[in-house]
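re: ur question from earlier - yeah i can do the single chain one, its not a big deal. heres the input i used so u can compare w yours
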Amino acid sequence: LDNPYLSTQARQILTDTFLASTVNPNTGAAFTDTVVNGVVTVTAAQKLATQRAQISAGTFRFSLRRNWTDFGTRDEEITRETYRAVIGARGEFNDDWNYEVFANYGEHKEKNLIKGNVNIQRYLLGVDTTRDANGNIVCRSKLPGNDPLSYVYGTPLSAGDDPRLAADVAACVPINPFGEGSVSQAARDYVLVDSLATGKITQLNIGGYVAGDTSEFFNLPGGPVAFSLGAEYRRETLKYDLDDLTQEGYAFYNAIPSFDSPAFEVKEVYGEIQLPLLRDETLAHELTLRANGRISEYKGGAGTTYTYGGEIMWKPIEDIGFRGTYARAVRAPNLADLYSAQGQNFAPGFADPCSTDNLATGSANRLANCTAAGRPTGYNYRYSSSLEILSGGNANLKAEKSDSYTVGVLLEPRFIPGLSLSADYYTITVDDVITAPTAQQIANACYDLPDINNNPFCALFERAGPGGGPRGEVEFQILEGSLIQISQNYAKLKARGIDAQLDYRYTDGDWTFTFGGLYTRVLQRDEFLNPADPTFKNRILGELGDPKNQVNVNLSAKYKNVTFGYQFRWIDKMYLNTYEDFNELNGLPPQNLDYAPVQKYPSVAYVDIRAAVDVSEGFNFYAGIDNVFNRKPPFGATGVGGGTGIYDNRGQYFYAGVVAKF
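and the output i got, formated as tokens:
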């Protein structure tokens, strides 16, 4: 309140307003007694009296929120360079066998110059101003008797821990935080800094295969056996580096450490075989088996993995076929998953699930679990800025594994040439899923799952004790920088659904008509994210970004060298927030029936049209309109993230272009 740039009138208005308040003006939180071992050490009334004394003395600090347009735009100038070299040989032998060997090396470099970054330590020194003996406005840190704190180390200048603090104090320029355009050029020069980030990725890929069939020396009743055998070696490196100022945590960018991991290496052998058991027999127009397998040896946590699969195709007659497949697949953790160093990050928009405002927005377990964790009565901390967290890799990750099954039918009736109709049912289960839950998901899962005592999410962050935290956290608040967000092998994912496709092509003289229709019906889309409770389900199906039903239809008509196209896309209704808000799940009642006046985004349909003309064999002109009826994302959805990317956010979109081949 004693800031010298604050006018007398403004200071008096703020002083009167703060003195009239019975809560902390910066947080809106009511004062509560501090209790240590059952004894009240500081009463709420004493805390209020201390605040009012600071206000009257002019030493009370109040929060000022401002968009610092005076500092100019923080911009990024990115240069990317990619190189690739390939050498190989391919050929044929034994009439019906072929081979290929190759070596492929690629390199990607990136340089990112961040212009107009803010040195936070200098900013904090610059906005802490006072008047010197001559009445001039100066940085408070320059006056005798002041011992400013390091933004990074939290220790005073006199401790000598911060190698930059003394120079920053000596160069300090006072900053006027009040009024647009109040920042001087000298202050901008003092605060702003250009940061530099560089990165490099390389990949070496060497492999070869031989493929063919046994037609010259062995045939099954349905024909020769076809096969493919091969081997491959891959080596990848990844490096990332930021300037020292940013890495040390002074710049208005996360304090991201350098990343230079061990090389990622994998050796693989693989094979595939096709067995045509029968052909043109009674009730066996075709009976074919296919099988494949791959053995991969990863340098690092994934170790040796096996992928394999098989397929059967049976056509009792030419018009109809039945097929079934099974596949085991893996996804090994990549370099970033494994070796990214834990570094500073932030969770914007974070809301403490144990605050009074949020207790009713979680599961029926939340209140009891927050109470069991030691939540003080009346605790209602609200975040005015992002929660600081730590994020990074996990060298103990293992490979994800998935099992998928499909069964389907294919109709190609001879009496309707050009018509094809197929329908397939699939089920997919992914185990040991590699995922990094968000900070909000971690905190929510700690208190929303049934058993807080055996919940691995609760071990990923710490809360302040009765005396508060070292960075000014109030009692029970999550400690800044304590929440760890790393990739882990979290439980499993399950999906089931039906895909149906209809294709038809008809030609009559100079006319050619084509029709393609795809209908997708998802039956299950669930996440099981807690290894300690693998039956607790998070239903994704029907939520924003994951509709139950989708339809896509494509029509085209071509007359000589002119083609007209039409596309229709339909997306089913989806919940505004979560399925659990409005439905029973996991034996729990609906969690938030009054989340919004409406439960679902409405279904949406898009129409696109296109025309093209083949002017000559090497020249084509095309034009079209996407989203003909100018459908916008519904209910204020942005169409760019949080699941809303499923909607078109451009509105009606015209385009035209040419293709020329020389």
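Residues 123 and 191 are 6 Å apart (CA to CA). not sure if urs matches, ping me
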